[in-house]
Amino acid sequence: MRRCLFFILLVSPFLVAPIALKPKLIENVQVFQEGNHAVFSYDLLGIGDVQRLRMDFLINGHSLGQEQLKLSGDIGQVQIGKGKRIVWDALYDFPSGITGELRWGLMGDSGAYYEGTFNISVMPLPPDLKVKVVFSEPSGNRILNAEETGILTLTLENQGSGDAFGVSAHLSNSHNIPGLIFPQKIDLGNIPVGRSISKNIKLITNESLPDSDIKIDIDLREVNGFDPLPQVVAFSSKAFIPPKLMLADLGVNDQSGNARIEPMEIVELTARLQNIGQGEARQVEVNVELGQNVYLAANSKTHFVVGELAPGAYKDLVFSVYTNRRIVNGDPIPINLLVNEARSKFSEIEKLQLTMNAPTHQARQTVVQASTSGPIPQEFAPTTGLRVDVDHDIPKGQKAGKYDVAVVIGNRDYATVQSVDYAIRDAQIMREYLSKTLGFKAENIIYEENASLSRFNQIFGNTSGSKGQLANWVDPKGSSRVFIYYSGHGAPDLDSGDAYFMPVDANSQYVSASGYAVQTLYANLRELKVKNMTVVLDSCFSGNSEKGFLFKGISPAMVKTTALTRGPENAVVFTSAGKDQVSAWYEEKKHSLFTYYFLKGLQGEADHDKNDRLTVGEMEEYLSENVTYKASRLKQITQHPSVNGDRAAVLGSYQ
């Protein structure tokens, strides 16, 4: 269609100086066409620095401001001089093309004016849009499950000779599948020649989604009719499958060992929470609710973050309680588990069926197998990869001495350096092995997550001496055995090279002032009157870590670590790596590499002669073989655990 367009370009009188020195002149105006653009070239003469130009257009009787058109170049505030240009992208504003005579005018803020006419003919060249559609969903099984959000990634590439204008995508589903929500129109805008554009389109579902084969039609349109071929995306949907959370088993470890709960006795409870439904349970958390006359033992937890539970999967929750004498024989012991799931309708209140002084079963006697109300769909079948072997089937060993004391510290969340992702998990499971396999009483385990420097000093004492919680808990007559476990960062002092534990509030740049020296720990342990000690350090003191170097602005080659201070004479010291090495993580097992194999050794794997007595020498051999090999295979690094002390000493004995 042929159009006649008349342009009048007017300029608003914006002054750049209080007094105009001399009228400025617009001269040597030329108008010509370059491809899809109309070009106005001119000289702006006069005395002064700048001229303000404003352009207002009249097109087919319609007035349009310059803000409504695609103008670029010397417009607005313009420097005085020659060779000025104003470029109008005509096809951008009129994507279907224009042909006709333009009448135009140019005016400066001092009154200088120039006008003329120009014939323009601009027609769009055809684009060629190539389309690609990719479907994805969170589980990766290529099936859109109810309550999942799928993604259609729509990519268009213009391989034609002209730009594509006003491209839009129109989505529809002829069967109107319930529970499936998506936008009906997506504006994609202009796509220049040789360029591409991608857009993610959300497919939101709810519990109403059925089992179905879904087809989504995508109709793509371009304003000039250069439409690409329509697209069809086909995939399957899976109806909502609910989880079912329940208390599958309850184990009791009592102090007296008679499998009965008695007043005033600290009892370790292991509650097995299992998902016996066919759907995944999400964001599960459990709170322990204690009724009247029931109390939580020291250092025990009442809140557990379980996370996701797959069909048939379970999680053991361990906590310790005791009662007063007001609950008498035969009375129920009021303890509930408040099980919260991301969707409140799947939350449960589970009552622990406990009775005072009635027989109970031990935690290791029953292992509940996954059960369902029907066949588990293939895509939801439980897999062994969901189960970390060392976190389960913890063997029971002989009880430790009455005054034996353990310290467990897991430092994960640091204020100034990278986190140690599995440190708290390492500490939690180590505490379970100390209690069950090595026989320490729960109340004799000093347990700390994310310990600060002040907490290190409170537990072990400081440079002035060993007076602290550990010293107060051991038997002053010398009958105690001590076990210390630490998982977290270590770092060397940049000047001396001495090794330091890093509390979570420490600064690696000033570790001698904000850290806790290894030699201080050993010096204070030497002051304790105890039978023997076992020290397990899952930390590297090289200044490096799985997530990178701990020091800023310093080359790792410049950081040197002296050999670790030798432990007390009556101590066995396990260290996870050499002084210049990194302690690796074992992501698949969700533990550090060293701690995983230390726990695996305690589980019985290191008892080579199978005599139910695990010696230091057996553990050393097991760690040296497995940690060194796995670090090389998984991480391509060298990690050599080391042991100092009596190899013949017995770490633990199994029942």
Short summary:
With 655 residues, the protein is mainly beta. A six-stranded mixed beta sheet has the order 29-28-30-34-35-39. Strands 12-19-18-14-16 form a five-stranded mixed beta sheet, with no helix packed on it. The chain has a four-stranded antiparallel beta sheet with strand order 1-2-8-6.
Please write out the topology:
Elements lengths: L24 E10 L2 E9 L4 E4 L2 E4 L2 E4 L5 E3 L2 E4 L1 E9 H4 L4 E10 L5 E10 L6 E8 L6 E3 L3 E10 L5 E9 L7 E2 L3 E7 L4 E10 L6 E10 L9 E8 L6 E10 L12 E9 L5 E10 L3 E3 L6 E7 L4 E10 L11 E6 L7 E4 L53 E6 L12 H14 L8 E5 L3 H8 L8 H5 L7 E7 L2 E3 L6 E3 L9 H4 L1 E2 H10 L4 E7 L32 E5 L9 E2 L4 E2 H13 L7 E3 H20 L6 E3 L5 E4 L2
Parallel strand pairs: 12-19, 28-29, 28-30, 30-34, 34-35
Antiparallel strand pairs: 1-2, 2-8, 3-7, 4-5, 6-8, 9-10, 11-13, 13-17, 14-16, 14-18, 15-17, 18-19, 20-21, 21-25, 22-24, 22-26, 23-25, 26-27, 31-32, 32-33, 35-39, 36-37, 38-40
Could you explain how this protein is built, in words?
By secondary structure, the protein is mainly beta. The chain is 12% helix and 37% strand. It is elongated and about 110 Å long. The relative contact order is 0.07.
